[in-house]
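Deliverable D4.2, example record:
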Amino acid sequence: MGNMEEFIVARAREHLMYSGSRDAKVSGAGIVVRTGRKWRAAEAVQQAETRLKHKAILGSVTQGRAGLGSLTANRYDLASGRERQRLVQEEVRASVEEERSSRAVAMRQQGAWMKWEQAMERNVTWKDIWTWNPQRIRFLIQGVYDILPSPSNLYTWGRVETPACPLCSKPGTLEHILSSCSKALGEGRYWWRHDQVLKSIAEAISKGIKDSRYRQATAKAIHFVKEGQRPEKTSKSCSAGLLSTARDWVMSVDLERQLKIPQHIIQSTLRPDIILFPQEKQTRSSTIVLGI
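Output generated by the structure prediction step:
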């Protein structure tokens, strides 16, 4: 849908360039932008302009707990030239997003992610896509849209005779397979998966501790510039973050044992997955808990 969205906005931009041209011959030529049979750029632009005019009549609508007049927006009736074209393009993009959301809500299974609450937003960049294993990307996309080959989905697709979980005979939905099977929990399968992720994180932190011993901690300072002077060019330094603040970090990982927070740090009954603290200056510590 991303490519389609960019195509629609690009064709709307092209229509605006022709219709809003300063050359009277170009603007009055009635040039029609070719887009296909299902969608017309002129109709989309007209609809966007109508919506913008309606928003101009309503004014800035306050959202949340913001006070009256705290939110300002560029009004279409007061804009001109490129600013007006930009507002129309943004409105066209917003209409495409609304249509996409309405389609997702109408899908019972593939649109279930629209009903998620308190879910952490994940930003997958092009760099991640190029570096990740294709199977990982495939699992991520299929997991979001609930089309992984779970027993329930395989039964819906006619691949198996029963939708039950092969371990406990309960409905084998994706949620059940990933985190709700009582027999898998009793056999330690979820703990094994948890420990595999924990090992990878611990190895990365251990490598970071070794590398930080050869780096100097860089203090963040604000350089003030007097009036009439130009700021001096400074070289960007790479900071090692928290690990660069000490050279004697001690890391404890909860693998195959009951890890507890040391009493000399704080008295607590919590059981973190990783504890990280400096051996000499024991005033600072960090704990990590996995949500897997």
